[in-house]
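User: Run a structure prediction on this.
Assistant: Running it now.
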Amino acid sequence: MSDPLPLEHVLDQLEARINWERKDRASGWRVDLAPIEDLVARAGAPGRDLGLCHVAGSKGKGSVATLIAAGLTRAGFRVGVFGSPHVERINERIQIDGQPISDDALAAALSVALRLVAEAEEAGTSGAEASWFDLVTLAGLWAFREAGVDWAVLEVGLGGRLDSTNVIDPPEVAVVTTIALEHTAILGDTLAAIAQEKGGIVKPGSRLVTGTPPGGEAHAVLAGIAEAQGVEHRVAWSEADRTFEEANVTVARAALDVLGQGLQVRSLQVRSLQGHGVPEIGGGLLTPEVIAGARLPGRMEWFDSGSNRVLLDGAHVPGSLRMACDEALAALDGPWGVVVAVHGEKDVAELLEPLSGAGFGRVFATTVPGSGVHHPATAVAEAAASWGLEAEVHDLPRSALAAALRWAEAAGADPPGGASAGVMVTGSLYLVGALRPGLRDPRGFQ
């Protein structure tokens, strides 16, 4: 048997497929799941014998997926997590037992996906039209089977009903974290329409957990979907939750509680537990230690750069940015500079409205070269100015952050706590991914 191709070579082949994460999805995004369904069938349905959790939502879905996985791991299971987008390396999208997949295992799984596409092309079937994300999704399911995981927790990429991850069989639990106006050109321009799309992951035989507040139109749609599908619906929302983490933990605990109700080993051959009995699963597995170990990069992540504190959060809807701003001001009472880039599908002015409150001194507007999907830095600066914010334009993220750090050094002359000021990097996980490696480098951006 020939040696496996190196990951770099496999990724070059993968990049030949259309990548809707880097395209205008409003003009030509998929209308059915036929390509991924074809490939999954050719692969022998690699997700069929796994315990499955499926997580959708406008905010928090990646964190909730990671928390659910951490709880299952604490119970003694082997767990795979499929998530998107990655912040620094594609390996982050496929996690096995809490670690990104190795280069060799990822190359092997992607090679299988590419081979199956070639077979579909030769046969003239729908798999020939598979996208970049289709192939990565299939690679994740294949890798989970090859690694012998017991549970796979899959985070939806976009929407739910037509997302590549929705090729799986009915999951043991389907989760919808929150609903906000996002990707409106694709998912619809009302909360109800977006909830209908995200609720498309609910299937007969599943159970539904939602983090949407009761009484709203989105919650009503999701409750209606649960009733129509004949599935149990658990509401996991609390007025007491003040932070992203608190809200995400509430949803993840509810999902684990649902999984633990009447759990049987079922046809799932629990390889990692044979001879050890069936563990208890429940929200109590999410101890403070487990929660702390399940935090994702680029989501309310703090760094120190010189005397400045830097907060990374890829908030991309106004409600999420508002909550991030509240947490930032609670941690450091200004002044704050904000480095911002905005995905091309977003309404820039609407997204930046939360920055117009007290405490945010200047916006350092930028874009993400090479992503193909972000608004120009000038458009971001103009939107910031429309809210009365001082704004300056930087074509490159690194120069924007360097300028923000210099501004913060001058702006926060010796405030309490010993940090001169705060700098928030937000608006896009692509931006976070572009800047995070430099913040991890001790030399920083000075």
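The mean pLDDT is 88.
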